[in-house]
Amino acid sequence: MSAIDDVSIGGEVIRLGQFLKFAGLIDSGGDAKEAIIDGFVKVNGEVDRRRGRQLHDGDLVSFEARTVRVRP
């Protein structure tokens, strides 16, 4: 298992699509949308196809070989 990086979002909540770009997991909003819809993104270990899913402190987001933790 790879190391989990913490990413501070500077607030309490961020949407999944925004977080993927903010954390540097994906380059563009279009790429984020496709990856989420195609089921390549996991939140807390489960595939989540909702681009607007709200993430909170401690949520784990995985894409490809990276996992990052949401921090305020």
Q: Which secondary-structure class do the elements indicate?
A: alpha+beta
Shape-level CATH architecture: Roll
Tell me the name of the CATH homologous superfamily: RNA-binding S4 domain
| CATH fold descriptor | Structural Genomics Hypothetical 15.5 Kd Protein In mrcA-pckA Intergenic Region, Chain A
**Average predicted local confidence, pLDDT:** 96
Measured between the Cα atoms of the first and last residue, the distance is: 24 Å
**Main beta sheet:** 5 strands, mixed
Can you tell me the CATH class?
Alpha Beta
The count of DSSP E runs of length 2 or more, i.e. the number of strands, is 7
Biggest sheet strand order reads 1-7-6-3-4
The dominant shape is globular
Low-confidence stretches: none
**What is the element string, with H for helices and E for strands?**
EEHHEEEEE
Integer tally of domains? 1
Q: What share of the residues does DSSP label as strand, in percent?
A: 25-35%
Per DSSP, the total helix count is 2
Q: What is the percent of helical residues?
A: 10-25%
| Radius of gyration over all CA atoms, rounded | 11 Å
